Amino acid sequence: MAKNNIIKMPQLSESDRQFIVLEKQQELIREQAKLIAEKQMGFKLSSRSISRLEGVNPDLVTVVNAAIDMTKVDFGVTCGMRTVAEQEALVAKGASQTMKSKHLEGRAVDLVAYVGPNITWALNMYDDLADAMADAARIHGVPIKWGAAWSVGNIAEWDGSMEDAMNSYVDLRRSQGRRPFIDAPHFEMM
């Protein structure tokens, strides 16, 4: 006579059952968080950001639009084309250092990084944003300079991360006994 291959399971206590249920719930929460994070990678420019690109060189607009599709960091456009009066006001209050700004020609944009609905000034977020701008510039063949890596030149030709590019600029300025001028939101055509 064949024996039944029945494995007897020990009875679980109520606390063991609750632990297993909680563990399963935590696993589901982690999976949902991962799905949400993956969906958040698809950022889009707001209508306000799009309107701020009016008058900006079409090649630079192409790079910004490509970068928002590639970025790990949500961003918006705070400034594109400026009038002479706007530039004069910025220079007067110390928010800009020159009247030869590429914003006057529509060849520069300032981008601001977001964490959720809030603007962030954390420099590492701008490194990531600049990585997306460099990738987009490479793809579209548009030479771009970044305001946190002035000495690097065309970021599309830089072999490394934008964090490395910024550090290279900072090291150069310090070796010259000069303070670096970091304008991380600024991107301009060369």
CATH C-level label of the largest domain? Alpha Beta
The level of helicity is: 40-55%
Element pattern in H and E: HHHEHEEHEHE
Q: What's the β-strand tally?
A: 5
Q: Give the percentage of residues in beta strands.
A: 5-15%
Low-confidence stretches: none
Q: Can you summarize the main beta sheet? A: 5 strands, antiparallel
Whole-angstrom Rg: 25 Å
Describe the structure using short key phrases.
single chain, Muramoyl-pentapeptide Carboxypeptidase, domain 2, alpha+beta, 190 residues, 2 domains, 5 strands, elongated, five-stranded antiparallel sheet, 6 helices
Structural account:
The chain is an alpha+beta fold. The protein folds into 2 domains: 30 residues; 147 residues, Muramoyl-pentapeptide Carboxypeptidase, domain 2 (2-Layer Sandwich). Helices cover 45% and strands 13% of the residues. Strands 1, 2, 3, 4 and 5 form a 5-stranded antiparallel sheet that branches. α3 packs across α5. It is elongated, with a radius of gyration of 25 Å.
